[in-house]
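Here is an idea for our session: we take a single protein and study its fold together. Which protein we use is up to you, so please pick one and set it down. Once you have written the record down, we can walk along the chain together:
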Amino acid sequence: MTLPYYQLVAILVIIVLLLLGAWSGRKFIFRRRHLKPSEPDTLLSQSPTEKSNVDESQILRTYFRGLSYVIANETDKAVAEFVKVAQVNTTTAEIYLALGQLFRNTGELERAIRVHRDILLRPNLPEDVRRQTFFEIGLDYKKAGFFDRACRTFEEIVEKEPKNQAARRELSALYIGMREWEKALDLCRDLPATQDETSILAHLTTEVAKAAEQAGDRKKALSLFKKAVELNENCIDTLLHYGDFLLNDNQVQKALEIWEKAFLINPEFTTQIVDRIMKLPVAEREGRIEEFFLRHRGDYGRIKAFNLAYIEWQIKSGRLQEARIQLQDQLRQKRAGRKLFNLTKQLILAAEPEAAAKDENSDLIRSLLTADFRFEKNYHCQKCGYRLDQITWRCPRCSSWDSIFPR
């Protein structure tokens, strides 16, 4: 398991400090613990029985062994080496902070929490170390799945340190996971306005706007949708739902313009846009979808998502022969997924009553059987590879925004 960069840096800093202490003639005082075989290793909770001076070079060798294991990604061996040092050098809280991070990284969450709690019990603990330890406990709770405890921990940190950006980010991520959109938005507003943060703000503002619309506060919803567009005019999530809002407000032409903009930004989401046009009143949608496909086919006809949406519309509108030709073209590529299989099935079922279509359907079935089918889910995360059936704007696995696309 690869250690996060900040953990490696923390360990390096500790080693540098210890080396400087050794060079300046500082002596390390160590405590030897005697444990019965049946007693658990509590690291900090047991009192030492003997003090002795230990060869500093031996301790430094232990540190360097631990560091080499960290660099080699042999985390378990690194933990073992740092435990050795922690057992004898009980005076340096930073060592235990690094050790607790290693425990958390290797999944030993109970030990990580215990080590960090023991640090807080120390008398005369420097305030900066206390704050960092409290933050580490919040991370321990989060990784252990104790989200309520993690929230309370980070809320307490933010209350005491309103400008603590790391704690605000962690708390905001927890609120997002719990779909507490407005709380998350309040926290994110004060973070540095990087491109990523601005994009997240647009998504959160959109979610709060949707909630306001559902609650009947259309004035607030409209204001928030406009704000989300100002934050990130290329956010597909915002544009799609802003168009929905305008359609519900009977502003059909404005809704179509917003969806057209979303399509031009990313044609991969053709299906989501066409589905929305299909919801227009019959008189409004008559001819619009056909015009949409004919207008964009020259520029975007090579995009798979565009073609599959076009085939689906042809089947639904009864243009089976045209859909059959398009499907054959897709199947000739010898790569097919769940969406293409379902469209082929829809076409065969729709054409079943037509006697003249039997031969064409037989050819389609043969093409289907010779294609390399992969029955994977329709969407995937480009960052971590996570697959899912429905579109979402934040990956459930890696928490990346705007990384989910059709396969």
